[in-house]
Write a structure and sequence with these properties.
The chain is globular. The strands form two sheets. A six-stranded mixed β-sheet has the order 5-6-7-3-8-9, sandwiched between helices. The chain has a three-stranded antiparallel β-sheet with strand order 2-1-4, with helices on one face. The protein has about 230 residues and is α/β, with parallel strands linked by helices. It has eight helices and nine strands. Helix 5 links the parallel strand 6 and strand 7 (about 170-175). The chain has one domain (about 1-220): Rossmann fold, CATH 3.40.50.
């Protein structure tokens, strides 16, 4: 899947002007305000009405056909209704829900609990299961481990790796965390001020970054190298 052109504007101001290729798993990395979240919202057609966007892409699937795209949000605590049992927050049948729960490593008895009764790690697994409910072609991840401790972060990243191998979807991981990005993704696109600064194979960029901006991100994030391979 290749995004040949994505432009996002607010009035006469061009906020984002980028292109990138999602071969298997791509990390879209940048500091706060770089344009990565706007990119995600544009692909999901969730930009505010005040913003306009142009999108040209080459893809083996239609971005607007059914639920080919799915999102794992940043905060599972706000993604779920606290007053509704987990089971009732799925749209598919019981057999499929049970299968999804097994895929993400959760006990079926948790389906009859309310979200506040689950831990942060369990809730993130729930929203991963929900994101896979429609068998998406592209799974988009919006900082999905921000609210988790290091142990649960690694568990979620390992889970996503195994699910991608099993189900064959592509991944777009939007993050500022180079550490997690390098653990999960094969390729990287670094953006700043709505422009692509550097892109390519993850391990090659990590070993020999060309831009100072990329070097700064790497140095800041690898103070904790817990997940780096």
């Amino acid at each position: 899947m290749k995004i040949n052109k994505l432009k996002i504007s607010l009035g006469d101001k061009l906020l984002v002007d980028i292109s990138f290729d999602i071969i298997s798993s791509l990390a879209l990395v940048g500091q706060s305000g770089s344009g990565k979240s706007l990119t995600l919202k544009a692909l999901l057609d969730m930009l505010p009405s005040s913003m306009k966007h142009e999108l040209e892409c080459d893809s083996e699937f239609d971005l607007k056909a059914g639920k080919t795209l799915s999102l794992v949000p940043q905060n599972p605590f706000t993604a779920l209704s606290p007053l509704t049992k987990i089971r009732k927050q799925f749209f598919t049948g019981a057999k499929r829900v049970n299968e999804l729960f097994r895929d993400v490593g959760l006990d079926l008895e948790l389906l009859d609990r309310f979200p506040p009764e689950l831990s942060g790690g369990q809730l993130q697994r729930v929203v991963v299961a929900m994101a896979l409910e429609s068998n998406p072609k592209l799974l988009m991840l919006d900082e999905p481990t921000t609210a988790l401790d290091p142990e649960n972060t690694k568990l979620i990243l390992d889970l996503l790796k195994s699910l991608q191998k099993k189900d064959g979807f592509k991944m777009l991981f939007v993050t500022h965390d180079m550490n997690s990005a390098s653990y999960l993704c094969e390729d990287i696109c670094v953006i700043a001020n709505g422009k692509v600064v550097e892109s390519g194979i993850m391990q090659e960029i990590l070993k020999s970054p060309k831009e100072d901006y990329t070097k700064t991100l790497i140095e800041a994030n690898f103070a904790n190298r817990e997940f780096r391979e």
